[in-house]
Design a protein that fits this description.
single chain; 13 helices; mainly alpha; MetI-like fold
Length: 300
């Protein structure tokens, strides 16, 4: 009986073994190989030499610190706008209005359309000669002439943020809409019977109950935005004058465009470290807020 019980205890792990092997092959080995390459001078040559932490020293002796700061500004601005607009959109989609189902379907195209196609569309809109944005600006007197949004540093940086927000907001809205629909209707009805207005019900009933979903979506959106490559690369390729070069773009340019694989691997390792630290700090702050909320509820 003991032997049979031991086999039964091992059976779940045996079922998980194929998935574990595949995960290690797809994720584990490339990660280990990237770390190994980061300590070498690997490039387009038949041999590679161990260089220790020289690649990491080059990172912080160059312009990479400014790239890190730019990446965090780009990520926090974009994620903040996506969460704010997505929460507002989910609230509107959750309201009882005529044609609600049709409106929900119309919200989805920015997320469903392949990213490359959507970004190419935005690149046409930003064009100064035949782009709609420049044309409308001239028609309404906001611009004195054709304006190339992607040719100026600040304008290009804002343009990439707008495009990323347009692509990512529908997913946030639908995710939070699902969270709102899971709230029991009795809670809103009780608050309404007590004389609570719409804003008060949203602030005191809806928002606290969907806060775990907002926290989860914020973390996921931050990771996806931090690693976003195609939006910036299609629009500006990191330009003009590196104004939109984020950590992932800088890593690609170093490793692929300049064929310095060792330095590119070191930058990739730094990305993993920054995302791991960001996730750890984020979960720590969430745990502290949760404990504070529990203590406040107990005091009441």
């Amino acid at each position: 009986m003991r032997a049979l019980g031991g086999h039964q205890a091992c059976f779940p792990y045996l079922l998980l073994m194929p998935a574990l092997v595949v995960t290690l092959a797809i994720v584990g080995w490339p990660l280990v190989e990237t770390v190994r390459l980061s300590f070498t001078d690997a490039a387009l040559k038949p041999t590679e030499n161990y260089v220790g932490f020289a690649n990491y020293a080059k990172i912080f002796n160059g312009s990479f610190p400014s790239v890190i700061a730019r990446t965090f500004v780009w990520m926090t601005t974009s994620v903040g706008l996506k969460i704010a607009i997505g929460t507002a959109a989910a609230t509107l989609l959750n309201a009882s209005v005529p044609g609600r189902n049709v409106i929900r379907v119309l919200v989805m195209p920015p997320w469903i359309v392949p990213i490359a196609i959507g970004v190419f569309m935005w690149s046409w809109l930003y064009n100064g000669q035949f782009g709609m944005i420049s044309g409308l600006g001239q028609r309404f007197g906001l611009l004195s002439g054709p304006f190339e949004f992607l040719a100026f540093k600040d304008a290009a940086f804002l343009a990439t943020i707008v495009t990323d927000v347009w692509i990512g907001t529908p997913m946030v809205a639908l995710y939070l809409l699902a969270a709102m629909q899971s709230i029991p209707a009795d809670l809103h009805e009780a608050a309404w019977c007590d004389g609570a207005g719409r804003f008060y019900r949203f602030r005191r009933v809806t928002l606290p109950l969907i806060m775990p979903s907002i926290a989860t979506m914020t973390l996921l959106s931050a990771i996806w935005t931090f690693n976003s490559f195609d939006i910036i690369w299609i629009l500006t390729e990191g330009g003009p004058r590196d104004a939109t070069t984020t950590m992932i773009i800088d890593t690609f340019k170093t490793a692929i465009s300049r064929n310095r694989y060792g330095e590119g691997a070191a930058r990739a390792v730094m990305i993993v470290i920054f995302l791991s630290l960001f996730s750890g700090v984020y979960f720590y702050l969430l745990a502290r807020l949760a404990r504070r909320a529990i203590r406040a509820g107990g005091e009441r």
